[in-house]
Each structure stands twice: as structure tokens, then as C-alpha cells.
Amino acid sequence: MQTNISLMGKILVIGAGGQLGTELTKALADKYGKDHIIASDFQDAVKTKFDYCTFYALNVMDKAALEFIVTKEGVTQIYHLAAILSALGEKNPVQAWDLNMGGLLNVLEVAREHKIEKVFWPSSIAVFGPHSDKDNTPQQAFKDPNTVYGISKLAGEHWCEYYFNKYGVDVRSLRYPGLIGYKSLAGGGTTDYAVDIYHKAIKEEKFTCFLTAHSYLPMMYMDDAIHATLQLMEAPKENISIRTSYNVSGMSFSPDEIYQSLLSYYPNFEIEYQPDFRQQIADGWPRSIDDSNAKKDWNWQPQFDLKAMTAAIVDNLPQYFNYNKNK
Ligand code: SER
Questions:
Q1: 282-298 confidence digits (pLDDT tens)
Q2: Disulfide check for 249: which of 39, 291, 308, 322 has CB 3.0–4.6 Å away?
Q3: How many structural domains compose the chain?
Q4: In a domain, 294, yes or no
């Protein structure tokens, strides 16, 4: 069912072609009506994903181009998803910092100057580090991020809070765990293995995992991530008590556990472990997350555990990617 957003304005999604953006943009179009959605991405090639709404090629580092779209289209909300993730960021630290910080500051400034009603910006479990509590990590846990991505997310959280306190910009944020969906591949993250493993299992190929068998990390099925995002953005302003970013939890599992969940569908599926530099990143992150603030403030409740997620992905992915399950 569609609801009209306030003032009949438009929502601009920046980084719409990415793993999260692909699904969130569609969910926003389904919820608010496709005429209210503007997709944008720095890669013009992803335009083909957005035959249902207006699309712009946009580099978020180009503030004038961002302002042009906001003014021309009458944008009243921005979802800014473009970032370089943890693993790729370690290969290009300065570039990751420039994009992750510069992009956010451009969005916050445009939001301030153009009186944008609401902004969404994703943070991550990467804000935590080796000395954070590992289990049921609290909202306010000590944070010593050890990746450029994590440092940029932690700094970004404080910029969001600053723009809210100083200028009244209604910016809201979630600390996503690893996101797992079947409609888009992940790219450049430490939790990507949990997306890739499904493709290998379904294609009946051996999977080489870049983390060890028992690296336990917080994860979330994409449907839950979309649900959490829409719920947060719909919540009354006065309910939002956290203006840095909310802890949100879905499930936690290790590579061995996701492998076991796939064996019941693909009994011959094989895995081998070849941990690389991403192991050190994973070792610095929480194993599970305490999201009681999200539950209290806007009734967050995840729906998917590992078993339900695997069932949903095995059911949908082969057809979505045109893999022949019985070959
Ligand atoms: N999924 C992200 C990554 O692995 C964490 O936010 O970098």
C-alpha cells in the first residue's frame, strides 16, 4: 500500500545501485510511489536497474551537482548510501576517508541549506573495535575502530549528531551489521562472504572462505534491514533519542554455521578456509549486538534468523540470477 510522503516531495537515494540501495530504492518506490523516488549513483551503468523511476548519474563529491538535483526535482528527503566499505577501504585508506566523509558533509550541508526534511545515513558495526565488548555490544560501548571505514563511520555519526543539535537537520542512522540479500552482490566488505557463499552453493561449486570457520559476526537479512530503515524513518521525531546511530541486531553466525545451514539443501557443498587480511578486521568487530534502544524507541523487532534467511535465499536466488538449480 502506498502512502504519500509529507508535502508530496521527493526522496533522493544516493548510491542507489549498491547492495543496499538496489533493494531500499525499490522498497521506497513501493511504499511512497515511484514518482516520488529519484535514484542516483556514480556509475551510470546501474541505470538499467531503475527503469521504474527517475535516475541521475551523480558523484556525491560534486556538491553543485547534488544541489542541482535537489532543486530541480524538489527533493525533501535524502538517503545517502554511497561509501567505500571496510575491506576495500583498507586498500585505499585516503580515498575511503575522502569519499565517506566528504560525501556525508556535502549531504549534510545541502540538507541544512535546502531545509531537507529528513536524511538517512548508514553507520556500521565497524564503529566498534578490538577493545569494545564483543558480546551483546551495548549502544554506548567503548569504540576503537581499526579500519578507515570504521573511523569514518564513527566520525560520521558525530557529524550527524552535530548537524541535528546545531542546525536541526533531522538525520537518522542505523549501525547495520553485515547485510545479506539475494538481489544484489555485496562489494568491498568483510561480511561479503555470507552473500557469496549462497551463490557458490547454488551453483554447486566449492566455496573458499576468507574468514576462519568460527568467526562469529552480527548479520541481518536484507528484508529486515529494509524494514528497520523504513521504521526508523517513519518514527515520530520525538521518539528518536539517539542522533549518532542506533545499534540494530538481526542474527549472529559463523561461516561454519551458514555452511551447515546450506548442507541441508546442498549435501555435496564443500567449503575450505583461507583467511586473509579481512580476518583481522572481523576479529576486531562484535560477535553480537544489543539493540534495546531501537526496540524501545521505534519498536524494532527482526523477523529472520539464519534458518529462515537460508530458506528464503535458496528459494529465490536461483531464479533471480538465472542459475539452473538442477544442472
Ligand atoms: N558489511 C560491512 C563491511 O563488511 C560492515 O558494515 O564492511
A1: 999 999 999 999 999 99
A2: 291
A3: 2
A4: no
